[in-house]
Amino acid sequence: MAQVLPMHDDADTLVGDLARAGRKAQRTLARMSDADKARALRSAAASLRASAAPILEANAKDIAAGQANGLSGAMLDRLRLDEERLEGIAAAIENVAGLPDPVGQVIDRSTAPSGLELVRRRIPIGLIGIIYESRPNVTADAAALCLRSGNAALLRGGSEAVHSNRAIMTALVAGLAKEGVPEAAIQLMPTQDREAVGAMLRAAGLIDMIVPRGGKGLVERVQKDARVPVLAHLDGICHTYIHAAADPAMAEEIAVNAKMRRTGICGSLETLLLDANFPASGKVVGALLDAGCELRGDARAQAIDARVRPASANDWDTEYLDAIASVAVVDGMDAALDHIARHSSGHTDAIVTSDDTAAERFLAEVDSAIVMHNASTQFADGGEFGLGAEIGIATGRLHARGPVALEGLTTYKWQVLGTGQARP
Amino acid sequence: MAQVLPMHDDADTLVGDLARAGRKAQRTLARMSDADKARALRSAAASLRASAAPILEANAKDIAAGQANGLSGAMLDRLRLDEERLEGIAAAIENVAGLPDPVGQVIDRSTAPSGLELVRRRIPIGLIGIIYESRPNVTADAAALCLRSGNAALLRGGSEAVHSNRAIMTALVAGLAKEGVPEAAIQLMPTQDREAVGAMLRAAGLIDMIVPRGGKGLVERVQKDARVPVLAHLDGICHTYIHAAADPAMAEEIAVNAKMRRTGICGSLETLLLDANFPASGKVVGALLDAGCELRGDARAQAIDARVRPASANDWDTEYLDAIASVAVVDGMDAALDHIARHSSGHTDAIVTSDDTAAERFLAEVDSAIVMHNASTQFADGGEFGLGAEIGIATGRLHARGPVALEGLTTYKWQVLGTGQARP
């Protein structure tokens, strides 16, 4: 493991060297069987458990430094490891080991008029860069998902977790090596120099895809500067449209759950659209307010309940990640679709209605990664979608959209089987 | 149709205006049924046939200008239209109209433990930018493929074909409009200003994907400067490895066909790898030389036939697109795989062998978009793969690889069908 800082002329050289080593290791990974990769991940989990003492010791250093540097209580909590959290990380690796391996899967198969047999088969993407912030569990989670799908990973964690990340990485690499995984298959950037992040973002052709995991500032920088394809979403400005024909009790339960279950996740409701012909708007608005949600509304929404404050123009484009929502009254489906087309971040938008024709139109015309009918947007999650895990949620239009797990970490090749064909 | 140059402050404003109009039109396209889109394309083909006179007149202007500007005979030939070529363009549009519409296809469907039904459904990508050179048929081909898959297109053709492209576009738009396709669904850049290409390449968030169609200089510039995802390949450095257990007659036929059938296409053989234990190397090398191919080889290849010239280091990384090939003798599969890993451009590589185990290893380990067993690399083509058409061949690792037609012009969304679920 590259714990000793090598002497490099510059960040590009460093990233180039690490990436080439990672790509070489990936060629070995690509040849490993499903069973071999699963065994290696279980060995990594065992090694992590056996290394609890040094990991918790390293984590104590990070916590002490964080306290000295005045990190907030919430950030210290994200950073903190204990026996239970470490067990959770090890169990998550074992969970990934148990997921079906996408590598080698046949997407489709056909026979061309020339007699050539064509097979499209899933293969790993190559080298994945992961850039993340304070949570040290990402080191293990992201590495496990990359390895399970035959990819090498180059990880760059936050400075505040540097000792924890190194200790976790040392344990993982030791466990993996026991089962024949080359050391460079997962690598942690040996420097916290910010310029090294820039070098990763520039490394087109060396790093195949970058996944940023963290706050909006991080994702914004990565999306702005990257020449490498990025899998991410910037905002989760999720709408729930209560259609005229919505069941009132369902509308109330879904709206309150979509906003208040956890206000800080990307799938949480940020804007509630109430159809002008929905007869129970007062009940839904009242339930949100009673649950402790601040509402900022247009004039018609303010008229529903005196506690609704006036919304400013910015509110319709704001991801609060808090117990705050904007609320607008819209005149029917067209107005709802227009509002969503203008303000949605393309993450998750939902309709509540008992009218299946209206639902079908909404599901067809809203152009977001995830569109829902009669469900809380808080379900926007790889685990809830049955993917078994999640490397992130993507709102881009190419490659993979919505919750991305193992399949999104693969690409494919065409295998062409001939019997001596020359092209006429 | 934007034939009149609008007054714009700069290229970015122009591209922004066109892209916004295209995106708006695309929302209409996305709602059109399979049958509607097919009918619109047939109407475009009919309009093209009916507009033969103005199109050929416009083409004559381009030809005259090209002759005055000293264009080569080959370039003039690519530019030239006649009744027969125009009929070919119209027939190609009708062929695309007859292809199955990928939009709305269900990729997969599952039910989550929460009872939510999950459907991944294909949708159009959005607005596709096409940047191309002299062949005016690309105007119609690319527009047809984009429309068939529900995408809007912003086209930027070469200056030398400006009159032809505008006349073709006018005919297409008129035919499409008759069937309800908005005029902005396909747009031709109204200026030949090179800065406008730069503005297209920068238009991330406005243009969803760019497909360059043309020579290496064009593709290189697009790949270097684009902030928008690019679907393309730069080089087609294709290898054919004649394994020790290859059938000699098949090896000879495939090698000669892979190189000499058409030397100028991207799937043509550029490097021949001869296994040191293949007993009939002399026959294969002799057949290529006799067919008029210049061979540049390493020392062992030169020893096979005195007509083989010495290769320089550059030869292993050169796409000749001509009756020239490099040839090396390799010691078995490992050496062949190493050579290909170092020098292949990831387009198409083939093995000729009667040993199925060797073939399987080659097909698994060569990391190119297309890998072939006992077939000529000249088959690397969307038509030959049964895709019915081709917008291009891609060697990138994300989204779509190899020959790309309609499916590669789609993405997907998750449709989530609930019965009132709130997340616990």
Task: Pick out its properties.
globular; 21% strand; homodimer; Glu-5-SA_DH (chains A, B); Aldehyde Dehydrogenase, Chain A, domain 1; Aldehyde Dehydrogenase, Chain A, domain 2; seven-stranded parallel β-sheet
Can you give me a brief rundown of this structure?
The structure is a homodimer of 424-residue chains. Chain A is α/β, with parallel strands linked by helices and 424 residues long.
Q: How would you characterize this protein structure?
A:
The structure is a homodimer of 424-residue chains. With 424 residues, chain A is an alpha/beta fold. Chain A has 2 domains: 11-231 and 404-415, Aldehyde Dehydrogenase, Chain A, domain 1 (3-Layer(aba) Sandwich); 238-384, Aldehyde Dehydrogenase, Chain A, domain 2 (3-Layer(aba) Sandwich). Chain A is 41% helix and 21% strand. The first copy, chain A, has a 7-stranded parallel beta sheet with strand order 10-9-11-8-7-12-13, with helices on both faces. In chain A, α7 (162-177) links the parallel β4 and β5. In chain A, α2 packs antiparallel against α5 and α10 runs parallel beside α11 (281-290). At the A-B interface, α1, α10, α14, β13 and β16 of A face α1, α10, α14, β13 and β16 of B. β13 (370-375) of chain A pairs parallel with β16 (410-421) of chain B.
Record field, number of beta strands of chain A: 16
What is the average of the pLDDT values of chain A? 95
- What's the gyration radius of chain A in Å? 24 Å
Largest Cβ-defined interface: A-B, 61 and 62 residues
Given helix and strand content, the structural type of chain A is alpha/beta
CATH classification class of the largest domain in chain A: Alpha Beta
Provide the succession of SSEs of chain A.
HHHHHEEEHEHEHEHEHEHEHEEHEHEEEE
CATH architecture of the largest domain in chain A: 3-Layer(aba) Sandwich
How would a textbook summarize the main sheet of chain A?
A: 7 strands, parallel
Number of helices of chain A: 14
- Please give the order of strands in the largest beta sheet of chain A: 10-9-11-8-7-12-13
Overall morphology of chain A? globular
Task: Kindly estimate the percentage of residues of chain A that lie in beta strands according to DSSP.
Answer: 15-25%
What is the percent of helical residues of chain A?
40-55%
* CATH domain topology of the largest domain in chain A: Aldehyde Dehydrogenase, Chain A, domain 1
Termini gap of chain A:
54 Å
Oligomer: homodimer
Low-confidence regions of chain A:
none
